Amino acid sequence: SHIRLWALQLILVTCPSLLVLMHVAYREAKEQRLREASGDNYRCIYPNPSKKRGGLWWTYLFSLIFKAGVDVVFLYIFYRIYSNYTLPRVVKCELPPCPNMVDCFISRPTEKNIFTLFMVVTACICIVLSLIEAAYLIGKRCRKCLVASEGDSRRHSHSCSVSRADPVGTGGQVFHGADYKPP
């Protein structure tokens, strides 16, 4: 049944989003437990629990790829079952319990064809958007890692000896350069 396929597709596409929401809720609960246990000595683990960092970044990336994969699989299933994504008006049925070939009529085939077309177009848009967002997240992470490694190599490439004694008139502050970020 195409209606059951649509329902299954919608359920499988929304499940990864629920997984991301559960991950954020887990982070918030962990933060709350730590806050209650530590009292005044509380040190924040997640300044912003819904910010995509660490494990949440991977969960979100996995959810995007999973959604795109589910949509591709269902597009393939719809194409294989209903050639060219169109439902026929009449289907010749010869499966048991029918003793011979019987004409089976599909109710409202035009309405179902329009809805199937809508589902196909929506699935294609979702696939493209999910892949673009995944590529953006990966590109942003790679760029961040490259900038961080470039900063580390710059810091280590300069052979600047700084004495332990405070330079006169600086009050203990030493200028390391414009690209230096304190730890």
UniProtKB/TrEMBL annotation:
One Gene Ontology term, aspect cellular component: connexin complex
GO molecular function: gap junction channel activity
GO BP of this protein: cell-cell signaling
Main location: other
Signal peptide residues on this chain, from the entry's feature table: none
InterPro entries, alphabetized: Connexin (IPR000500), Connexin_CCC (IPR019570), Connexin_CS (IPR017990), Connexin_N (IPR013092), Connexin_N_sf (IPR038359)
Keywords for this protein: Cell junction, Cell membrane, Gap junction, Membrane, Transmembrane, Transmembrane helix
Record membrane topology: Multi-pass membrane protein
Domain Connexin cysteine-rich, chain residue ranges per copy: 70-137
Keyword ATP-binding included in the entry's annotation: no
Family: Belongs to the connexin family.
Record protein name field: Gap junction protein
The organism of origin for this protein: Mystacornis crossleyi
